[in-house]
């Protein structure tokens, strides 16, 4: 569900879009539903969804992924209210919003065959005040906070961990 730089939204493959939305959105909704019943009975629990920078700022070329992640942001906030008001205020739902990590999934978009950065990767880094991609381990502190009692009054939050990308302005 990506759109090549020389193509337009009119070239979007709807089946590919549907597949990406199904994977990312329902890959969050279905596991949540599997655990909510037990959590509601216990009247306590925490869910941390994985969102994306593309949920906050539409990024070129990845319309399917961005749309699904924007839906997860909305779903997170909906579920935070739903669970706290209808089951228990000790049921919390938040999301971590990672910035850019260099992963196998996006390696072809961000690196050339020789391992150097693509123009897209260089643009991302130029718009990230920390000046680099995140390391997966840098998400652990925020996740730990969100699942701990230190955040017992935090629900419906989108916790951005992006090296300043979302704050950057030109």
In short:
GO terms for molecular function: oxidoreductase activity. This protein has 170 residues and is mainly α.
Commentary on this structure:
A 3-stranded parallel sheet has the order 1-2-3, with helices on both faces. With 170 residues, it is mostly helical. The longest helix has 29 residues, at 14-42. It has a single domain (9-99, 134-161), classed as NAD(P)-binding Rossmann-like Domain (Rossmann fold). Helices cover 45% and strands 11% of the residues. The chain has helices spanning 14-42, 53-56, 63-86, 107-110, 119-126, 140-147, and strands spanning 45-50, 91-98, 158-161. Keywords: Oxidoreductase. Belongs to the short-chain dehydrogenases/reductases (SDR) family. It comes from Bacteroides uniformis. One of its GO terms (molecular function) is oxidoreductase activity. Pfam families: adh_short_C2.
Which structural class should the secondary elements be placed in?
mainly alpha
Separate helix tally:
6
How many discrete structural domains? 1
Give average pLDDT, whole number.
93
Q: If you compute it from the alpha carbons, what radius of gyration comes out, rounded to the nearest whole angstrom?
A: 17 Å
The helix/strand order is HEHHEHHHE
Low-confidence stretches: none
Oligomerization status of the protein chains:
single chain
CATH class: Alpha Beta
Strand content of the residues, in percent? 5-15%
Overall CATH architecture:
3-Layer(aba) Sandwich
Helix content: 40-55%
* Biggest β-sheet strands, sense, barrel: 3 strands, parallel
CATH topology: Rossmann fold
InterPro entries: NAD(P)-bd_dom_sf, SDR_fam
Protein name: SDR family oxidoreductase
Organism: Bacteroides uniformis
Family: Belongs to the short-chain dehydrogenases/reductases (SDR) family.
């Amino acid at each position: 569900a990506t759109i090549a730089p020389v193509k337009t939204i009119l070239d979007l493959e709807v089946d590919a879009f549907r597949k990406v939305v199904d994977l990312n959105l329902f890959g969050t909704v279905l596991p949540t539903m599997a655990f909510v019943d037990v959590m509601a009975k216990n009247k306590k629990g925490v869910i941390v969804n994985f969102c994306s920078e593309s949920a906050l700022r539409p990024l070129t070329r990845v319309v399917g992924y961005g749309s699904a992640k924007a839906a997860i942001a909305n779903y997170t906030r909906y579920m935070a209210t739903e669970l706290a008001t209808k089951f228990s205020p000790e049921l919390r739902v938040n999301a971590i919003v990672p910035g850019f990590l260099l992963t196998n999934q996006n390696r072809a978009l961000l690196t050339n065959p020789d391992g150097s950065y693509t123009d897209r990767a260089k643009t991302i880094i130029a718009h990230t005040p920390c000046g680099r991609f995140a390391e997966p381990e840098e998400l652990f502190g925020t996740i730990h906070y969100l699942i701990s009692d230190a955040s017992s009054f935090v629900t419906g939050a989108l916790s951005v961990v992006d090296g300043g990308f979302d704050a950057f302005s030109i």
